[in-house]
Amino acid sequence: MSELNVKQVECVNCGAKIDIRTGLRMKTFACEYCGSVCENDEVKYIQDQHELKHKFAPLSFLKLGMKANFLDSEYQIVGRVRYTGGEYESTETWSWDDWFLISPTGFPLWISEDETGFFLTKVYNPSTFHDPYTLSSNYFVDDKQYQVEDRAFSTLEYIEGELTWRAVPGEVVNYIEAKSGDNSTFTIEYSDSEVQYYTAEKLSLAQLKEAFGKDVVDAKMVQQKMEKKPAKPVPWLVIAIIAFIVAGISFFLFLTLKQSGDEVFKGTVPERVYVKSSLRTTKFTITDKKTNEKTFQITKGSLTKFAFQSGDFPYRRSRVKEVGWWVSGDLYEVNPKGADKYITTVNADFWKAHGRDGGESWSESKKTDFVYLKGLKKGKVYYFKLTAGANKTNGKRYNRNVKLALTVRQNVWYPKPFLYLAIVLGIIGGIILIIFIAIRHDDD
Q1: d(CA 424, CA 440)
Q2: Whether the Cβ atoms of residue 300 and residue 396 lie closer than 8 Å to each other
């Protein structure tokens, strides 16, 4: 292979002699000693050469100075740029290297290398202008259809060697990438002042061996790259939609599981429960018409649900803004041969409130309370002894007659985790959606 003419220039920052092979075409070079990125006699950026040289080490066997044969011409690698890409609506990123090759006649090529393989890229001069700011899902180039896969941006992270264009770490380039059925690529890179077009073809292992020599190419590594499928980032909007869908499913499960199980008891206190401050508490049981205590039997399942429901409790709206009462139930297991066995105590409370806010009246209430118990024995019979009392509000107790109903369901599921999951996912989806809208607004 013919050699590129070598010319030495002096690094403005450290004074080291740097070999240049692109001659007068050179616009940017990086000093391999101090990391300075220079444009002729001006330092534009200083890279931390010790750290970044290892952090952004080459991804494969390719390196500066290597020679190859492409398109019936001889080329030499003279530069490398590491890019990090990202989509506007996603936090995911990916990286790749663009290896810059040039022929003795000055014709440029690039080998783009990522985790999935190698792509031979060249400048394309279309006969028709393709406006990157006009949304399109397809492009037609040389009678070939390309379908848009990415509208994204790339950030230049690191420069090695020399380039025939001005570049500096940190600069951002927008791009559109479209692919055809034969896996070739059409790319538009654009900024406010410039639009550049490229076409690329994926290189096979055989083509790499032919270009660089079979003894140079790491065949095993190349094969592993080509068999690896690209990991596409998940857009924020998709994540938000998934979060909302799962939140909806979780809420549906919550509503469904609230009604799970089999009803084994439903009873109402025959007389209203009188809660009065002078009595402090009222003791009572739920009985049948013969005033016998109503019982229930557990036959299956490990979790039992008790639903206490209060009837409406009136109060004078002008005097008290919030009133309520509570009920405490001692659960007993029936023992046919002796004294009944005390199992546990469950508690429920009920309240009602009203007020005015901004000139408008409002009212809220809680008339149902749920208690879940685990471990009641199958085949055993149970009943409650109940105690009720009034809550204190502004130093006063609520004195009223109220109705109480109790429903017991066996073999139930505990639904609240699904409610909590729905709330959390709904909040996460909402936050992601707000971020997505904000990013789109900034792009506009």
Answers
A1: 24
A2: no
In the predicted structure, residue 442 carries a pLDDT above the cut 70: no
Q: Helix, strand or coil for residue 258?
A: helix
DSSP one-letter code for 40: T
**Count of CB atoms within 10 A of residue 77's CB?**
23
Report CA-CA distances (Å) from 325 to 87, 308, 390: 57, 12, 4
The alpha carbon torsion through 91, 96, 97, 103 (nearest 10 deg) reads -120
Q: Over 70: is that where the pLDDT of 228 sits?
A: no
DSSP 362-428: EEEEE-EEEEEEE-PPTT-EEEEEEEEEEPEETTEE--EEE-EEEEEEES----HHHHHHHHHHHHH
DSSP string computed for 182-244: TS-EEEEEE-SS-EEEEEEEEPPHHHHHHHH-TTTS-HHHHHHHHHSPP-PPPPHHHHHHHHH
Between 103 and 278, the higher pLDDT residue:
103
Domain ranges of the chain: 7-219, 239-257+420-443, 261-353+363-412
- Is domain 261-353+363-412 classified as CATH 2.60.40? no
Rounded Cα distance between 258 and 236, Å, is 33
Q: At what angle do helices 219-227 and 205-212 cross, to 10 degrees?
A: 150
Burial 347-359 (b: 16+ CB within 10 A, else e): ebebbbbeeeeee
Q: And the tokens for 160?
A: 């090695």
> How many Å apart are CA 210 and CA 196, to the nearest integer?
29
In angstroms, rounded to a whole number, what is the distance separating the alpha carbons of residues 35 and 48?
A: 6
| H or E element that contains 246 | helix 236-258
Short-list 53, 80, 52, 77, CA closest to 66: 77
Three-state DSSP state, 320: coil
User: What is residue 335's three-state secondary structure?
Assistant: coil
Residues 392-402, mean pLDDT to the nearest whole number: 60
The model's pTM is: 0.55
Kindly report the average pLDDT of the chain as a whole number. Answer: 86
Highest mean pLDDT among 75-84, 272-281, 352-361, 392-401: 75-84
Whole-angstrom distance, CA of residue 100 vs CA of residue 23: 15
Q: Confidence band (pLDDT; 50, 70, 90) for 440?
A: low
Q: Assess contact for 208 and 401: CB atoms under 8 A.
A: no
Over residues 79-129, the pLDDT tens digits come to 999 999 988 767 778 999 999 999 999 999 999 999 888 999 999 998 888
